[in-house]
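Supplementary notes for students who missed Thursday's class. We covered one full example, reproduced here. Read the sequence, then the structure, then the short commentary at the end.
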Amino acid sequence: MSNKYKLNLSKYSTHGIIINNVGDNKIVLDVGCNDGYIGRVFDSSNVFYGLDNSKESVKKAKHIYEDAIYYDLNNLVKLPWDIKFDLIIFSDVLGHVLYPNKVLRYFVKNYLKRNGLAIISLPNIANWQIRIKLLFGKFEYTDAGILDKTHLHFYTFKTADNLVKEAGLKTIKVYVGSSFLGYVIKYLPFLKELLATGIILINDR
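Structure (token representation):
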């Protein structure tokens, strides 16, 4: 099966923003790690562990990460590593699970250090393209993107903030993901709800 999600390193992309906020000398848990593409761009000062529900992706991630395992986020079980992480990344994964608030709380409570950070990215359902489609009565799922057919939940900036608050996190920085219109949003930030494709939240406990 082909992998429909690839690393996007453009300046204002969700991946680019996440990578710019990882930092150095961290023990990182990448929840929904795909084939380990986020960890691939870092040197050995950061140590990555990964979870994914694709055995094929996990097999590839094992060559890049300290370890990676197959994991179903709809069935929360204890991880095999006795580790508290400096950083946990949820890159466009919470919208695909049955109970995203439950998943987020579980990992924050059990695996995030007291002074650790969580980076969460979610698709912005209030994007202008989706609004126009709705105006004409269209809500058609796609193979990838905001209307990915495997999405179970959709978010706006407000509901994304509510999600992290319910997990006991405090948002310290909000970023806007948009590979094509990020430059426009930088100078016209009041348009972020309309133009953003991704919502990226940096959170601490």
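Commentary. The radius of gyration is 16 Å. The beta strands are 27-31, 47-52, 67-70, 85-91, 112-123, 170-177, 198-204. If anything here is unclear, bring it to office hours.
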